[in-house]
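Model it.
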Amino acid sequence: MAVNDVEHCEQHEVHADMVRKVTAEMPDMDQLYDLAELFKAFGDSTRIRILFALLKADICVCDLAESLGMTQSAVSHQLRLLKQAKLVAGRREGKQIVYYLADDHVRTIIEMGIEHVNE
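Modeled.
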């Protein structure tokens, strides 16, 4: 899409009250950076597949890799990134680590995303 194809105001007029409202409610730059990083974690289809699997069940790396047709190494790499983003967590069960969604916010984001793409 060319720049000229983007709709814009025909007359330049700044609405100071609207500008004040937006700037007053804008999160600080650190929060916006963290939010962008969070959404980057959702920006990979492999990580989305992992999150969707974890939406359905808490699961160990072996079973997750088998379910997704991936190597354990590849799954572990993606889980590390998801863990750094605080989207998943793991617990030891004997000799296995079972992964799960970190909290209900993650579940909500995934469910809302699926709902949105199905509209």
